[in-house]
Write a structure and sequence with these properties.
It contains 5 helices and 7 strands, in the order ββααβββαααββ. The protein is globular. The longest helix is centred in the C-terminal third of the chain and has 19 residues. Helix 1 packs across helix 4. It has a 7-stranded mixed beta sheet. The chain has one domain. By secondary structure, the protein is an alpha/beta fold. The protein is 35% helix and 27% strand.
Length: 153
């Protein structure tokens, strides 16, 4: 499977209530993956894209590589952000797992939470061996809720 990337200025095409859109460009794609292997592979493609954009996004005030998993829509959001997690870098990568979301919504809350843990593990596994990410002094953090409650990866 191959992802087809599009660009959207100033609004997250998958999460309309995204509060951190000021001055951002959203590189977005949709995944039709339905199994863990395909979903992991496409998640890694999104991570590679976000890492490729680090040079343009990292500034003196950058502190975190924010990985957000939006449970209701099964959307991954990757951004560089500042100390207070209130200002994101110019380029944000978003990937919505459309087919997987349909399965997870039908499965129930416990299955969605289990998948959130898988996403966190896959991201941690990828970033721990990603040479391009290691070139930057960013702290990788994950949330499947609000930015005030993040977990270090």
């Amino acid at each position: 499977m191959s992802l087809s990337w599009s660009l959207s200025d100033a609004e997250n095409p998958f999460v309309p209530a995204d509060r951190y859109t000021a001055g951002c460009r959203f590189h977005h794609a949709e995944s039709v993956a339905v199994d863990d292997h395909s979903a992991k592979n496409e998640l890694e493609v999104a991570l590679e894209k976000a890492v490729a954009l680090l040079n343009a996004n990292v500034k003196n005030e950058s502190r975190y590589f924010m990985v957000e998993w939006h449970l209701p829509s099964s959307t991954l959001r990757l951004a560089v952000t500042n100390d207070t997690k209130s200002e994101d870098g110019a380029d944000v990568v978003t990937l919505r797992f459309t087919a997987l979301n349909e399965q997870l919504q039908a499965a129930g809350e416990s299955e969605r939470e289990l998948h959130s843990e898988k996403v966190q593990f896959w991201v941690k596994d990828f970033l721990s061996t990603c040479a391009g990410f290691m070139d930057y002094s960013l702290v990788a953090v994950f949330t499947d809720g609000v930015r005030d409650r993040v977990r270090m990866l």
